[in-house]
Design goal:
The complex is a heterodimer. In chain A, about 75% of the residues lie in helices and about 0% in strands. Chain A has helices spanning about 25-55, 60-70, 70-105, 110-120, 125-135, 140-145, 155-165, 170-180, 185-190, 195-225, 230-235, 245-255, 260-285. In chain A, helix 3 crosses helix 10 and helix 12 (about 245-255) runs antiparallel to helix 13 (about 260-285). The longest helix of chain A has about 35 residues, at about 70-105. Chain A starts with about 25 loop residues before the first helix and ends with a helix. Chain B is an all-alpha fold. Chain B contains 15 helices and no strands. Chain B has helices spanning about 1-10, 10-20, 25-50, 55-60, 65-95, 105-110, 110-115, 120-130, 135-140, 150-175, 180-185, 190-220, 225-230, 240-250, 250-285. The longest helix of chain B has about 35 residues, at about 65-95. The radius of gyration of chain B is 24 Å and the shape is globular. Classes of the chains: A mainly alpha, B mainly alpha. The interface between A and B is large, with 110 and 108 residues.
Chain lengths: ~290, ~290
């Protein structure tokens, strides 16, 4: 993710203050703006528009029938279930990691911070593969799991684990810089006034980090709902059972049900748009600009 | 350990260790969760490969089909990263320095590739660039095919890497004092000289960081590429797809060996990115 996070930007310089020497000639302004907008229109707007255009290409009735079909509903339910487990787990981890890293001093802190970012450097496909190596039939615990009739790979637990891996850093990496910047003064005061550990956390720290936390949660949620590569490796693609929404999109697409694939995809695209809106609102709050 | 404790004992931060509660609990939970979710599974890949003989390993990671996949993945990722470096700089510049109607929406939209599920991006791009698609139908008469070719892979990787350069350059550009440009101008530099000799060197660390981040993301990308690439062995088969193909053939060793090569490349890149960020911080301290 972009390193530019909720850490407040320096207040924006009003345009008029920009000295003459830092201003570009009008032709350069027009040309650069045109190039930037054309690039973004081509690579961002067009793909987004085509999703909705294709989704409704066979009419509203077809769209509704596709997203209300039992397999589609099962995929939506599984995606929501996964998110309901993964996001809270990564929130608890993110808060714990940020508390330890931002409020205390210990050896190996920068190594720990680097390790937390590690999943971002791993291909989603490899994120799925490593769980197959641990829990798959030929994996470390494979024989034991089979003997006890527990299914992890090609079942829901595998999907949850792979999604947790892929979204692992999101909350932590929003909270760590934020809590580091806030320091420990307020917590000290609370201790001096006799507050207990949990009181400090709920009454002092949490209110201070709530927007950063919310920001991390929406990014984590978006990625968890949309994860494809990692889930694809561990899911087994059983319709109605181990199919998440992105996998359902793939199945419909490979069956040449293009309008159907885009109908389900448009739900995910709506989620992406909602994520962008929520993200912008939080950023505007942080920078103080409306 | 003792001497270390003694040195920190005098600082204020150390007293924090004793006043604020929850150090053991939070660090313990962090390490346990990190170990169980990330480190143990990742080590499984390395241990699995360690059990292979050198001959088997090289046969798995250096067969012609795998080499072709590396060339495609690294080549298209480099090209996409480079295009994003150039256009990302232009987009960041326009967003920071100019004002135009709808700028806020454009700014928010830059993050779309982060928020849009990769499979959705994949089918959308395929439908646009297929020979009967909105864009493809104009390119087809010119004899230019995008979907199911190298160019298709490149287009998908450009989409996925788009936000990285913009989001790393933007904050640096925002903090840049326009007074520097004014100084250059009073010393007789024209605008072109100011941009090339003053601004670009200042932005270079963040540009390279953005490039490296986009490149790293593109190397491992799967969902947005598989639909548009056509997946022909030796031609349009990316490395992550090859790993999945091997898994589907129950060739776990072969898949893991290739995965280890990719993991090592990613870790080297991660190290490089960290060094770049350190460099860019030092750059700005001056």
């Amino acid at each position: 993710m972009a390193p530019a996070s909720v850490a407040p930007f320096p207040t924006r310089r009003p345009r008029a203050v920009l000295p003459r020497a830092a201003r570009d000639p009008a032709w350069a302004r027009w040309a650069l703006t045109a190039v930037a907008l054309a690039f973004l229109a081509f690579f961002l707007v067009l793909p987004l528009v085509v999703v909705f255009a294709e989704a409704f290409s066979k009419g509203l009735g077809f769209f509704l029938a596709t997203v209300r079909e039992p397999d589609a509903l099962a995929a939506i339910r599984l995606t929501l279930l996964t998110v309901a487990i993964v996001v809270p787990a990564n929130v608890v981890f993110g808060v714990a990691a940020a508390w330890a890293i931002a409020k205390f001093r210990f050896r190996g802190k920068s190594l720990l911070t680097t390790l937390i970012d590690l999943p971002f450097a791993v291909s989603p496909v490899i994120s799925g593969l490593v769980y197959v190596l641990v829990f798959g039939a030929q994996g470390w615990f494979g024989p034991w799991l089979i003997a006890h009739n527990i299914r992890i790979i090609f079942a829901v637990p595998g999907i949850v684990l792979a999604t947790t891996f892929v979204t692992f850093p999101f909350v932590a990496r929003e909270l760590i810089p934020l809590m580091q910047a806030q320091g420990t003064d307020e917590e000290y005061s609370a201790v001096t006034l006799g507050a207990s550990g949990w009181q400090i956390f709920w009454r002092v720290t949490l209110p201070n980090i709530r927007w950063g936390l919310f920001y991390g949660v929406i990014l984590c949620n978006a990625r968890a709902m949309g994860e494809f590569g990692a889930v694809s490796v561990v899911s087994g693609h059983i319709r109605g059972e181990t199919n998440t929404m992105p996998l359902h999109v793939e199945i419909l697409y490979n069956e040449y049900n293009i309008a159907g694939a885009f109908a389900v995809a448009s739900l995910l695209a709506l989620l992406a748009l909602a994520t962008l809106v929520a993200k912008s609102v939080i950023e505007w709050r942080q920078t103080g600009t409306p | 350990m003792l001497s270390d404790a003694a040195t920190v004992a005098s600082t204020r931060t150390h007293s924090a260790r004793s006043i604020l509660p929850g150090f053991g609990l939070s660090l313990g939970f962090t390490l346990a969760y990190l170990g169980l979710i990330v480190l143990v599974p990742l080590s499984a890949a390395f241990l699995k490969t360690a059990g292979m003989s050198w001959h088997d390993f090289t046969a798995a990671v250096a067969s012609p089909r795998v080499i072709a996949a590396y060339r495609l993945s690294f080549g298209a990722s480099l090209a996409a990263g480079f295009v994003n470096m150039v256009f990302g700089l232009v987009v960041a510049w326009v967003l920071v320095r100019y004002s135009f109607p709808g700028k806020r929406i454009v700014d928010a939209l830059v993050d779309l590739p982060f928020a849009l599920p990769t499979a959705v991006a994949g089918i959308a791009l395929t439908s646009l660039y297929a020979s009967n698609g909105w864009v493809g139908r104009w390119l087809a008469p010119l004899g230019f095919r995008v979907a199911f070719t190298w160019t298709g892979v490149f287009v998908a990787l450009t989409f996925i890497g788009l936000p990285f350069v913009v989001r790393t350059v933007q904050p640096v550009l925002q903090e840049l004092e326009p007074e520097i440009e004014e100084a250059a101008s009073t010393l007789g530099a024209n605008r072109r000289q100011t941009v090339i000799r003053i601004l670009l060197p200042e932005l270079m660390p963040s540009l390279l960081t953005g490039f490296a981040l986009a490149f790293a993301r593109a190397l491992g990308e799967y969902g947005s590429v598989v639909f548009i690439s056509g997946n022909m062995p030796m031609k349009t088969e990316i490395v992550p797809l090859l790993i999945i193909t091997k898994l589907e053939q129950y060739d776990y060793r072969g898949a893991t060996a290739i995965a280890v090569v990719m993991l090592v490349s990613s870790f080297v890149l991660l190290l490089l990115i960290n060094l770049l960020q350190k460099w860019s911080r030092r750059f700005h301290a001056i």
